[in-house]
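Sanity check

After download, print the first record. It should look like this:
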Amino acid sequence: MLAGMFREWSSWVYPFVCELCGCGSPDERYVCPACQERFTSIEPPFCAVCGEPAEGSFIPGGMCSRCAEDAPSFEEARAVYVNDGELRELLLSFKYAGALHLAGTFAGMMAEAVRGNRHWFGGRERLLVPVPMHRRKLVRRGYNQAEELAVLLGKELGWAVARVLKRLPDRMPQASLAREQRLRHARKIYGVRESKLKHCPVRGRDVLLVDDVFTTGATADACSRLLLCAGASSVCVLTLARTHHAWHG
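Expected structure tokens:
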């Protein structure tokens, strides 16, 4: 009861109240700095390509064994946090429970990471492309979380956004597939929106693919292939979080 009263009081003092502790957040976010510090940051060493945190031996090129054997289509994938604990719960709410108000908070965290790591993505400004959602799911959910992140990230960084990819009809849940199956399957369920390419071409552009969570890399690889075929000079990937040991499951 006291916690509820404090939350109500703090909402009058601070329009933004932390989703985790209920304290007012002075920086216009729904996660306060103290709670954000509890998230598991992804720190070096990690694979130079897929960003998987290192727990074994890396080859001299700085890549994990998976990327060394079968390099993905994207040049570099980076995530800010490990997808676990309280962050995972917030992301599930954001993705499945209509917590759209968290988009600005998450995009702010991603923008901070980009600004704080100037060497990421070749240090170049990039065209932001969100991972698409099928229109039926978009109607049911009301929003595409990847697109919401890309738009707000673009505002934070001053980078343009292009919605040039589409998700094709598919009845098979990817969560039930092993990694190799997901890689093959993902290449069949994404496509390019030719009409959008005419108005916002990617040819000759350095692209940054945006999503909420990096799991196996299958979606990122499939979308990157399409963007490269459409003429992109390079494709990198940014997500707020990633599943640890993603390349091994």
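If your output differs, re-run the checksum step. Summary of this record's structure: The mean pLDDT is 87.
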